[in-house]
Specification:
Elements (H helix, E strand, L loop, with lengths): L3 H17 L3 E4 L6 E4 L34 H14 L26
The structure holds zinc ion.
């Protein structure tokens, strides 16, 4: 069983870690729970972002559902097309199969 002192100590350790990493502890004005936010975030400092605290709904909940599920290959194609559209170049993957023994480490270099 976890006692209050253990919880307090755990909170202190987590809070110290988060604040050292630049996170800001905030308290949600709706549910009263504490949450962390990067000061540079455009998210509200008064809402934890949970659906019910953020006005009850997110806009993507109203998005139209797909009529059919995409196959893994279709998802892969859509992701590749997205990244190519925003400027990433597709590389042909190298075969990393080791036919001569056990593979412990695989490295590559940028060309
Ligand atoms: Zn909340």
């Amino acid at each position: 069983m976890v006692d209050d002192e253990s919880l307090t100590n755990t909170y202190k350790v987590i809070n110290k870690f988060m604040t050292e990493k630049g996170w800001l502890e905030c308290r949600c004005g709706t549910c009263g729970k504490n949450f962390y936010l990067k000061p540079s975030s455009i998210a509200s400092k008064s809402s934890c972002g949970w659906g019910q605290c953020a006005g009850g709904s997110y806009s993507f909940f109203n998005s139209i559902k797909r009529k059919r599920i995409m196959s893994p290959r279709q998802v892969c194609t859509a992701i590749c097309e997205h990244f190519e559209r925003i400027g990433f170049k597709t590389e042909i993957p190298r075969n990393i199969t080791n036919l001569d023994g056990n593979t412990d480490l695989i490295t590559g270099r940028n060309s």
